[in-house]
Design goal:
It is a single chain. The protein has one domain (7-194). Helix 5 packs antiparallel against helix 6 and helix 5 (106-126) packs parallel to helix 7 (166-195). It has 7 helices and no strands. It is mainly alpha-helical and 201 residues long. The protein is 70% helix and 0% strand.
């Protein structure tokens, strides 16, 4: 198994912290005008929103974290690393096409959809063949992670169409997607300890 550097634990661990911290601070700045249950994260990053810079900064940091993690996750299959890195890149691009304060945006929605898709399929694409792979890179674990993300995404679409708890559903999806890289990196580092291999550089 190729080495996974310890710094990847930091970059992958920062991703969910920065994301949740970003939307928490941005929502606080919006005050009672913003409803996190029914309104999406994109509303917080819209031009003119009180929390615009907080949410935009969080998305930029999230994208950088995913890019760096993909670079360091050398134990994963190349296709998965590319998908994770591309998902991070879409997080950067989505800040260039923010959603309007009200209504929808085809460009924003398209970029966000591509990002959601890449971050949903990367676990399966990254899975290593063989029973000696770290837990997070085993096919069964990867499929379970992707299925959970798909289920959450379907729930999000249903809530969006029914004007229900779209904000909650979107947060569940994004938390799952931002936490899984950390789980994979941690399992790779743990695998090295369990198998008695020398520590990564």
């Amino acid at each position: 198994m190729r080495d996974v550097p310890k710094w990847a634990l930091f970059t992958s661990g920062c991703a969910p912290v920065l994301l949740v911290g970003g939307w928490t601070m941005a929502a606080r700045l919006e005050g009672h005008a913003y409803n996190p249950v029914t309104q999406t994260i994109s509303v917080l990053a819209a031009y003119g929103a009180a929390g615009f810079w907080w949410m935009t900064g969080a998305l930029l940091a999230l994208g950088v974290c995913h890019l760096l993690t993909a670079w360091g996750l050398r134990a994963a299959a190349l296709a998965g690393r590319i998908a994770l890195g591309a998902g991070g890149l879409t997080a950067l691009v989505v800040t260039l096409v923010p959603a309007p304060v009200s209504g929808g945006s085809l460009r924003h929605g398209s970029v966000a959809a591509v990002g959601f898709t890449l971050l949903t399929v990367w676990p399966v694409l990254a899975a290593a063949r063989g029973g000696t792979a770290p837990w997070g890179l085993r096919l069964r674990s990867a499929v379970a992670a992707t299925v959970c993300m798909i289920a959450a995404a379907v729930w999000y679409l249903i809530e969006t169409q029914s004007h229900g708890a779209a904000g909650v559903a979107e947060r569940i999806v994004t938390i799952l997607q931002s936490v899984w890289p950390f789980v994979v990196v941690a399992s790779c580092l743990r695998h090295r300890v369990d198998t008695g291999l020398p520590p990564p550089s």
